[in-house]
Amino acid sequence: MSLLPFVVLAALIAINALYVAAEFAAVAVPRSQLAVVAKSGNRRARGLLAVLENGVELDRYIAACQIGITLSSLVAGAYGQATVAVALGPILEQSFALEADTAASAALLLVLLVLTALQVVLGELVPKSLALQFPERAALITYLPARWSVSLYRWFIWLLNGSGLLLLKPFGVTPGGHQHVHSPDEIRVLLDESRRGGALSPEAHRRLERGLHLSQRTVRQMMTPRHEVHALEISTPAEEILQRVLQSPFSRLPVYRETLDQVVGAISTKQIVRLLAVRGELPPLEQLVRPIPFVPETLRAHRLVRFLQENRSSKAIVVSEFGGVQGLISIEDVLSELFGDIGDELKSPEPGAERLPDGSMKLPGSIGLDEAAAWLGVRLEGSAATLAGYIVDHLGRMPDEGEQVELDGLRLTVIETGPTAVRWVIADPSDASSLESSTREEGAR
Hints:
This protein is α+β, with helices and mostly antiparallel strands. The protein has 17 helices and 12 strands. It has a 5-stranded antiparallel beta sheet. Helix 1 (4-28) packs parallel to helix 5.
C-alpha cells in the first residue's frame, strides 16, 4: 500500500481542523482585542472585524466553516473506504483466514472507526481547544481560508440558508444570525471564569460585578430612607439653622414646608457659613433655597446618573408614585454601589453588618436584600428593598423588640427598633434549620 492515501487523509483531517478552529475562534475572539490589532494596520484583523460586526456576513462565515467541516469529513470517509479499506481487506483475509466478504466488511468497519477517532481527536477536539485558548491568533490564521470558502460555497450557502428559512417559516421562527450577545447571567459566568483563571484580580472582579448589577438597582434600593434624611423646615429660626448645619455632615440640606412631603428646595451649608461670616446674620430661608430635582423611586441607577448630569445636581428627592417623599439619593450612593462605602471625614462611621462569636450575624435593618443575601447565604425575594422592609412585609406590621421571625430557613431576632423602622436584627441560619428538623421529627411521631 502506497503512502498517498494516508497523505490525502491527513490533509482532509487538517482541512477539517482548520474549519473547526475558524468557527470557534470567530465566536470566541474578543472584539476589543481585534479592534486594537486592526488599528495597528493588520488587514486580516480589519477584514475579520468587519465580518464579526455584520450579522449576515458572520452567518455566512460560520455556514462556510460548517460546510467545510461536513464535506471534509464525508470525503475523508469515502476516500478512506475506497483506498485504505480495499487494500486492508486482503491483508485481514490472509492474516486471520477470513472469507473475502467478511474481511472486506471488517476492513471497512476498522477504517471507519479509526477515521472517526482521528476526526474527533485531531479534527475536532484539538483545534477547538486551541481556538478557545488562543482565539485571536487562531482567528487571524484561519481568516483567509475561511473567507475564500465563503466565496467558494456562496451558492451552496444561499441554497442551504434558503431551505432552512422555508423549513422554519411554518413555525414562525426568523433566524437572527450569529451575534456576540451575552445576557447578564452569562457575563457574570465569564467574569467568574476570568477571576478563577487569574485574568481578573478579586478587587477588579468585585467592581465589574457591581457595575453589572448596577443597571438592575433602583433608586429605592440605594437611597437614604425618609427617616434618616437631614432636612430643615422653612420657618426654622436662624439660631437653630446654624446648630443643625453644624451637626449635619452633608453639604446640602432639603428644605420643606410643614411636612417633608412638601419639599421646596435645598440650601447649601457652605452658603450659610459664608453669610454668617460676612454679614453676621442669616436672611429667611426662602431667600436661600435653590431648586432640587425629584426622581421616582423606580428609576434605575444608570438613568439616575444621566438625570443628575442633565440637571447639574449631585442629589435628588425620591418620591413614590403617589408623590410622597421616600428619601434622598445622591451620586455618592451610586458610587458606593460600585466601589463600596466611600469614607467622608465629616461623617462618623456607621456600624455595619458583623459576624458574632457564636456564629450568628448582626445586621442593620437598613441593609439591602442583595447585601444581606451575601451574609446569610440565602437570597431573599420580595418587593422590599431592605431587610427591615422584608420583615415588616412578612409580618404585616412593625415587630416588637426581641420578637423572632422565621423566614426562608432563617431565624431572625429583632433586637432594636425605632419609631418607624427596624434598626438591628440577629440572624442565625443554624437555629432555624435545627428548628425545622425538630418540627419534622415531632410531626413524624
